[in-house]
Amino acid sequence: MFNLSKTHCLNPFEVRGAANFLRDGVELEKISQLSIDGECDRTAQEWQESENAMQEFDKAGHISYRLLTVTPEEKNLFFRLDGDPARFGAIGHLRGDFDTGGLFYTTWFDNQTHLKTDAFKVEFDGMVNFLRGSVDEPVLKSRKDMTAYCYAHPEQHIDGTIYDTAAGFKVQTADYSYYVRCTPQKGDYDLYIFCYDNCFLLPELAGQHELPNDCFSVLPHSGELVFIVMGESGYHPQGQSTSDPDMNRQIATAKNTLLGVTRAQEEAMLAGSLFGWDTPAAKPWHYDQNGKPRLHQPKEKDHER
Q1: What range defines the domain where residue 115 resides?
Q2: Which of 67, 83, 92, 184 could crosslink 110 through cysteines, CB 3.0-4.6 Å?
Q3: 85: CB partners within 8 A, 6+ apart
Q4: pTM for this prediction
Q5: Angle (CA) 232 234 240, round 5°
Q6: pLDDT tens digits, residue range 216-234?
Q7: 214 has which bridge partners?
Q8: In terms of domains, do 95 and 176 share one?
């Protein structure tokens, strides 16, 4: 939503300026940070221009989200996870509840603040607003609407809570996954949304955060092609190794592809064989898809959102 005013009211005259920016090729995310002056003469022509601009803006900025049923293996993602949050790409979670008048109160809790980027914030706010205003299934509009959704979707029931009406679904985009747990009960929290970065979550769900039984790699100091067995200290030299480190890199990549081993898994295996299998460097989720170490930042204290 554009930062049009303190009340975030989408006045057609104010949105006219935003639509002009869109026509000029300014990115939607950049426009969202602007404060647009809504004062103008309200002639009949300007009314029509503003209405046309409103429609253009709505067309460019509207995003629809699908509410998806999760697999049994994903049910734990509706709850705060134990262990290393980096493995799943846990960004944080939102806790919310409705009052008797339908107002919506929320609190945000961080897991990994370095993953809470501006792009994530924009998408997350848009997704929550969609779930509050969706015409078909406004799950977050009120406790009544949430209850109706839960009863209408028994296939999305969540075990592990004390409520029969508890249900959950996920919203997945190109970059993020949101696991929405609904427990519409007066006197308790009605909602939890757990947020994950797909760069971490999708490899985890695909089993790519487990160490393989073995793999090929290239020693960083010599460029030699070697074979590594999970749990063993050191490595096995290979007769196929050449004097060209780049060629050895190609051989290792080709062989690991046949084994179904990713670059992240390979780098973790190499670190485990050289520095010990209990070291954090021996965990595949500490590497990106190209095998480069991910940068981590310390967690901050929970705070109100």
Answers
A1: 72-205
A2: 92
A3: 111, 112
A4: 0.68
A5: 110
A6: 999 999 999 999 999 999 9
A7: 229
A8: yes
